[in-house]
Amino acid sequence: MNANKAEYLEWIDGCLSNDRKAQRQLYKEFYGKMLSICMRYAGDRDEAKDILQDGFIKVFQSLDKFNQDGSLEGWIRRIMVNTALDKIRKDKRSLTLSQSEDLLDVGVQMEEEEEDLDERMELNMKDVIRAMQDLSPGYKAVFNLYVLENMTHREIAEELGISEGTSKSNLAKAKLNLRKILLNNINASKISNG
Amino acid sequence: MAEKLDLFELSIKRGLENAEEAWNESDWNSMEKRLDGLAGEGASALGSSFLSNFGLAAAALAGLAIFYLNPATTIEEHDDHSELVQIEMSHDDRAEIDSKNNALLIDTNSILESVMDSNQDKAAANNNLPALTKAEEARIISINERLREAVEAKAGNNDSSEKRFTTRYVGKHFDLGALRSFSPNNDGVRDFFIPITLKEGDLFVMSITDDAGHLIFRTKNVSKPWVGENNAGKTISAGDYSWEVIVQKGTKKEIFKGVVTLER
Description:
The complex is a heterodimer.
Chain A: H1 5-16, H2 20-41, H3 45-62, H4 72-90, H5 93-96, H6 108-119, H7 125-134, H8 137-148, H9 153-160, H10 164-192
Chain B: H1 7-17, H2 25-40, H3 48-54, E1 57-61, E2 64-68, E3 73-77, E4 83-88, E5 94-100, E6 103-104, H4 109-125, H5 132-155, H6 161-166, E7 181-182, E8 203-209, E9 215-219, E10 239-249, E11 252-262
Helix pairs in contact in B: 3-5, 4-5
């Protein structure tokens, strides 16, 4: 992100008159960041790109409604997140069902491993994103909204049409599963590195 | 306010917050194709005509807006920030809703009825499936979903509460279009609670109970909604309350339940 506000306004003007060049500039400016957001909600890169493209269509179509005093990035981000959530909502059941191959039952064993992981918290973010993609849609959505969008369980419940309790348990299970996946990765890389 | 994050959550947040994927020109190429496609659809693909693609029929009751979508609707924004919502119903009905300050003013029962009718038609077409509520549910979910997109396109980054209520998703049952919260302070916005799809003349009884299960209020009349008082007229304090509506439809009774937050 390196353009300044004046440039943004210029691009927005261009986009509003359907100027491809301006649209490309805007797209390119936010592409990297927004795709990485979509990656967290998607099951794989292709799905993330679908969300990104759908999101940008909405961005271009509603730029005239953008309040120019606000943050353009924040606005685009919100549209991306909503687009991602729409996909998840379409299969509403996935929000409340627990992951079929639940990776663990209770957190007792995790308590011990927890420190282990925290100590080596130099996580490779690519691994984290991949691990997140492996979570079930319901877990993924709640984890993203809670941790990265700073929403409360109450807000998440409202946003996704689930109960606050489901939101809380989805977060807890998402975290347990994430840890498990990450620990496995760390251990696997330890073994392969000798 | 967001709750405090633990160490694990924080480290992931920090790591992911600044993540950025590398640029890929071919993604822009496919984007450009889609934009070309949109432009080719005729009318400008921008702004409110986008909304008309989704269509938006609106029903409003005392500041509550529940939108039902159909394919021929436009929203015009006026200079004074009011909006003119034009709805073309399939039966050539036309309703106009003028809204100011996000409060939609006109009740369009006819639209609700039309939506209900079309549900019933659909159910009838499906060999009179008894699961009418399911059809309604699916309908309402898809309506809300498309509405959300439309509102989102319109409001963009607007995080205000009226956007939130449009994202309501119905639970197991079609929820009668009930508000999630209301604030009886006579400001003309969400001053009372009554599920919006209940109509004058419907046979129903709505009961409001508190956490402990005590009955607070009961009504059988849409023109006597819950205004945050008990049946004796005593003011009830803010909080979450359960509502239950039993609707008599012919010989059948249907029960709807939900929770509403009373704000003070």
